[in-house]
Each structure stands twice: as C-alpha cells, then as structure tokens.
Amino acid sequence: QTLFSETPVLTSTKNERSPALDVNGLGADVLAFTRSRPGDPRRVDAYAKEGANAAVKLNAAGQAWTGGIDYPIVSYQQIVGGNSDVYLYDLVDNTREYAPMNTAQWEWFPSISGTMADYRVLFGRDSLNNPTQRILLHHHSNAGAHDTDLLSEVQRASYYLQPDQLNGDFATFTRCAPSCNVFRH
C-alpha cells in the first residue's frame, strides 16, 4: 500500500472538523469547516475560507455545523434554542438565507448542489416527538417553486439514517436498519 502524504489545511489549537472543499472561479480552494470556540471545545461555529483570505463565520447565532459546498454556496446546520435548521451562505454576496424546507423538526447535515437561484439540498430530518428519521431531497427552482422528496425513512430508535453527499443529480445516504448500507438516489 502507498501512503500518501498528508497536507495540513487547518492547524490551530481549536478543534476543526467536518470539512467540505470546492474551488472558486479563480481556481483557489474554498474550504468550509466547523471550529470550536476558544475555551469551550464543545461549542462550535461554521466557517468558510477562500484561498489565503481570512475565514468567515457563517452562522449569525447559536452553534453551527458545516454541511456541503457548491461554490459560492455553503450549506450548514444552525442550532438555536433547541431548534436545528438548514441555512445557505453565499460567499460572493456574504449573505445567509434560511432554507425554505425547514420545519419545527430537527433538520441537519445538509449537502448542496446548484446556485442560489436553482439548487438541491440533501438533508436529514428527525422527529422531535418519536424516533422517526428521514432523508429528504429539496429542490428550489429559478421560478421560486420548491418541492421536497422523501428518499428514506426509519421509525425505530435502534435504526439510523445519515445524509451523506449530493453531487449534481446524485445523492448518497447511509441507512442502518439494522445493518448499515449505502444507498444512492
């Protein structure tokens, strides 16, 4: 086996994890990541960094975890007051948008493909009242229309779903019911 050399991308005293990588129109790396707060490694925020520029904090409130990136849009999960929702951050305009598919349930781990005008988001939704978990694919069109398709669902506390990656028309997710298997849509 060949061991490839590791290239450090983020190296600080903070905990940095959940990376997603893309390139901008100039060919520079664009890295989205989750970083712990100084003095409290259990509280985290979502960030994005273009090339040698300083990192930009994506979440305006609460805590956040990065999801996927399709430059210039970064998807992330923001948790405020016991509620978790999906947000989209436009790195060109430096604007954030509350995603239209959010509900009173727990939306998490989004992955995005497309532009702010026409995009798809793969994400998980957990019921707060029972053990139901869902994997959903949301489509928002140029005309402002949107719909959400159910890709998978489990209703037992011992089962588990995890949204993984969205790339163009392909979505992947993991379904553990009871053994873990990878699916695509």
Structural description of this entry:
The protein is about 0% helix and about 60% strand. With about 180 residues, the protein is mainly β. The protein is built from no helices and 15 strands. It has a four-stranded antiparallel β-sheet with strand order 1-2-3-4, with no helix packed on it. Strands 5-6-7-8 form a four-stranded antiparallel β-sheet, with no helix packed on it.
Quick overview:
It contains no helices and 15 strands. By secondary structure, the protein is an all-beta fold.
Topology:
Layout: E1 16-23, E2 29-37, E3 40-50, E4 56-57, E5 63-70, E6 73-80, E7 83-90, E8 95-98, E9 106-114, E10 119-126, E11 133-140, E12 146-154, E13 160-167, E14 170-176, E15 180-184
Antiparallel strand pairs: 1-2, 2-3, 3-4, 5-6, 6-7, 7-8, 9-10, 10-11, 11-12, 13-14, 14-15
Features:
185 residues, mainly beta, four-stranded antiparallel β-sheet, 15 strands, 61% strand, globular
Fraction in beta strands = over 45%
Q: What percent of the residues sit in helical stretches (DSSP H or I)?
A: under 10%
Radius of gyration over C-alpha positions, nearest whole angstrom? 17 Å
What string, H for helix and E for strand, traces the elements in order? Answer: EEEEEEEEEEEEEEE
Total helices: the number is 0
- DSSP strand count: 15
* Sheet having the most strands: 4 strands, antiparallel
Whole-number mean pLDDT = 94
Structural class by sheet pairing and helices: mainly beta
Low-pLDDT runs of 5+ residues are none
Give the CA-based shape: globular
Query: What topology, given as strand order, has the largest sheet?
Result: 1-2-3-4
How many angstroms separate the termini?
32 Å
